[in-house]
Design brief:
The protein is an alpha/beta fold and about 230 residues long. It is built from 9 helices and 8 strands. α5 links the parallel β5 and β6. The structure holds D-xylitol-5-phosphate (DX5) and zinc ion. D-xylitol-5-phosphate (DX5) binds next to β2, β8 and α8.
């Protein structure tokens, strides 16, 4: 019989997904390897279209290159209009999870369903100004809910604390409905805001600028996961 000597098994398991947006774009494959060696649970890759957000980033080809460099879980966050059009290419390029924005389309349910049929986790992101009540109906239909804690488009912004209440609301509803939906938070996550997000119920932390500013990635990732 196994005897548990610690209560740590009671804690929700926290995942840390470093955001490649804050990495060196000239060395993406090396950066992916470095994150894998440092114990990251996955890699968060941002894709932007210059319309839904006023910035451009990487695309499926860069995702495929990262996929060749690492066996880590690839969490792809698409900040684009017409998300449906990108899905097939992202699946072919190695995405393990594709998260699109509720504000970007009127076909939320259809797109979630389609992503799932590709055997990839389906995530639904929502902006800081979007009410959690608009997201609630998709609990059970999405594998992940991604709360943006900054306005999407840029790294290095300050965490918007008002988002915590929405994470709490969604966490409570996920528990009530007995779902195992991941609750992910993205933007301005650091050693001060990570504990706040975890307390509110987030179990996946996307960390960009803060992580890449640290010398020791491994101990920083461990510290972010700790309660
Ligand atoms: C912003 C992106 C984030 C960004 C987070 O639109 O979705 O993933 O990389 O970066 P930090 O951690 O710097 O706020
Ligand atoms: Zn992101």
């Amino acid at each position: 019989m196994q005897i548990f000597t610690s209560i740590s098994f009671m804690k929700p398991r926290i995942k840390v997904f470093p955001s490649l947006f804050a990495a060196d774009f000239g060395r993406l494959a090396d950066e992916a390897k470095r994150l894998e060696d440092a114990g990251a649970d996955g890699i968060h890759m941002d894709i932007m279209d210059g319309h839904f957000v006023p910035n451009l980033t990487l695309g499926p080809k860069a995702l495929a290159a990262v996929n060749r460099a690492t066996s880590l879980f690839l969490d792809v966050h698409i900040m684009v209009y017409n998300p449906f059009d990108l899905i097939e290419k992202l699946v072919e390029s190695g995405a393990d999870q594709i998260t699109f924005h509720i504000e970007a389309t009127e076909e939320v349910e259809e797109i979630l369903r389609y992503i799932r049929t590709c055997n990839v986790r389906a995530g639904l992101a929502f902006n800081p100004s979007t009410s959690s009540s608009l997201v609630m109906p998709y609990i059970g239909k999405a594998d992940t809910l991604l709360a943006m804690s900054v306005n999407p488009g840029f790294g290095g912004q300050a965490f918007i604390p008002e988002v915590l209440e929405k994470i709490e609301d969604l966490h409570q509803e996920i528990q009530v409905r007995k779902q195992d939906t991941w609750l992910e938070v993205d933007g301005g996550v650091n050693n001060t805001t990570a504990p706040m997000a975890k307390k509110a119920g987030a179990n996946v932390l996307v960390v960009g600028t803060y992580l890449f500013q640290q010398k020791d990635l491994q101990s920083t990732i461990l510290a972010l996961k700790d309660e």
